[in-house]
Amino acid sequence: MSVKLKTLFISTVSFLLFVAITIFISYLVFFRFIANIEDTGVNNSFRTFDSIIDREEQGLKRTSLDWSHWDDTYNFMFDKNEEYIKSNLVNQTLQQLNLSFIIFLDKNNKIFYEIDGDVKDREKNILIDKITNIRYKKFFNPDKIDADTGTIYAYDKLFIISEAQITTSDEKARSNGTLVMGRYVDKDLMNYINETSKANVTFEGLPGNSHSLSEISISRSYDNINASRNTKDINQESSILISMSIEREAHILAIKYLKIFGSLYIVALFMILVLNNLILDKYVLKRLKLLDDFIEKVRKTKDVSLRLILAGNDELSKIAESTSNMVAELAVANNDVKEMDERFRLIMAATKDGYLDLDLGANRLYINKEWKQELGYTSKDESGLFYEHFSKIHPEFIEYFSNNYTNILNNNAEVFEITYKMIKATGEIIWVSERGRIVSRDDSGKPTRILSVAMDITERKRYEEEILFLSYSDRLTGLNNRAYMEKQFQILDKDMSSSYFIIMGDVNGLKLINDALGHKMGDKLIYNVSNEMKKICDNKDIVSRWSGDEFIILIKDREKDYVENLITKIKDACDSIKDFPISISIALGYAEKDNENRDSETVMSIAEKRMYRNKLIEKKSTRNAITSSLLRTLHEKHSETEEHTMRIKNMSFRLGRRMGLPQDKLDELELLGLLHDIGKIGIPEQILLKPAKLTAEEWVVMKSHTEIGYRIAKSTPELSHIADEVLSHHERYDGTGYPNGLKGQEIPLLARIINVVDSFDVMTHKREYKSAKDMSYAIEELKRCSSTQFDPYIVEEFLKLLQEDDKDGQ
Q: Which end of the chain is more exposed for a tag (fewer CB within 10 A), N or C?
């Protein structure tokens, strides 16, 4: 076989083999890479769909629970009154609640009343049958008060349904029916789902319950991905098939570029093949001279496209053949490098990602043209780009960026990924994800060159932040919700060095407003209170809605004075709300993390107890009924007047505040001022109201009122925390008091304060068995009994308070 034929045969086989290998590698690397990206996109589309449907279900669940646990709805199931129907069961209600129907079922699952908008009877019957299945499955738990929410597919429509047992607002009455609310996935919602998931979503009904729930089935055509997955309906049966059609943009674009590249590639290889044969034929007779000239020409011109072929089968032809093959291989290699470089540039241009080549030794940075245009770099050389690049890092991330790069340079890891913000030349702020590798090190192992790719992930971050906000925010007030606060508490509990306060608040009168004026007015109250809190609290304070009428404020790294001042401001702000027919107030309690209370649950428990104690002295609170009842009994039996009780309460509170007592102690002091003599309700009236001096036996009975009051307080959970003070308020500082003869600091501080204030009020006001003393007498008596009957420090502070009142009166 001639050299020409051999060369032609070898070239043709090499051409075909090289094409086959190139196609195989392209398929393995490029198309599988695109397929992985598409699979990730399909999973994201399904997750987005699930998130939207779950959000719709939760909103519907809240609405059904609100209606089904409403006393008016419970009563309606007995008498089907027209007032309820006219007020609530009209088509406008469906529009306001974004519902397709509302159905009331009696205990036998028969329709009691319905308002069904445009829902057809056959669709409604299917829905009721499936809801009946739910109730059958709850046979062993008929008193469940939560709502069952989910989807139902009927007559080519996907319905979102919520079914809840009807009961009273306190959830104690046995259910007398079922409330069913639902809407179908209409065109607007479908458009939103399609736009958000970037897919065309459709639904189908499936028979039986034998399908896999979580597996996604994917099939591909040239221009579309068809994915499907079945999901459970409200009966927990896998009866709904979700199908998505997603355009294969990346695949189509890849095919286009590969066709162009393949055509050029084959043409180039074919031209090389033809050129080799022409050279062999043309220069077959020019042996030594041609060989020498060829080698010299190649050396001088560095033109690797030249070819030399010498006929024959001797050493010269072999040298010529070897030389030509060598030059050809150089040409192919050079062409491959150019093509790889061109392919890389095309990919970078298509994605607009940044390619960074950092030379740490020379402080030089190469950045591809697309990324420079995207961020607006102005430096002309790589040294300038080095400094300009780092100047574009957002100020908030400079320290973070520096620390991460320091870790990259000091660790042995070869690859890294960091996320940070950058500022474009236009002033726009974007999120950037940078992935890179250390590609070279010096003799000591220190990195000298880093290659990385930067990607704009602003849209992804925005979407993640939006989802996070919806997950951790209260829909009515815009405050953080309970889930967010529980996450914060988990973080705090892991950090043993953290320092914080928790304030717990409960709006007084919300149930009264809901019952009397409706839930919209109640929502308005919660909204107004939350706005006042947001205006008063510092930006660093975390304010959240804990439950219906309860709020939580988390305050980190602050002093107690700030917390108590904040509580005062919030109370004053709530008292000033005038948009309601009844006065508005809020009960507040706080607690601090300290050495004894080291976890958030304990701190919360203490704050809650103090809040409920505060409710005892709040006139607008229902818990005040305990205090009011005891005081009414005392005033009816004893000559003690309500004015005397309020004087003790107010004066002791002012004295406590002057002494710097914390808010929780001031709350206890107010309550003690009201109830310190509550034990007198157990003293016989002939002794209690006797105008003359008591006998020794009668005095023993009279003194027992402290022990009676102690037992009353101890047996009342809401008052047990002041029981010791009630017992000790007649103890004397020198130890001669009763009932236990306590002395000095052994006597509870609040009892010592009440002793001073009560004695002063008794001296300066008229009683049935004595006349009032003037102010100067009472002051001298306090001074005389200081250190014997009274705590000298408390007497000193009380006298200063009287002097201030005297100056203000003048």
A: C
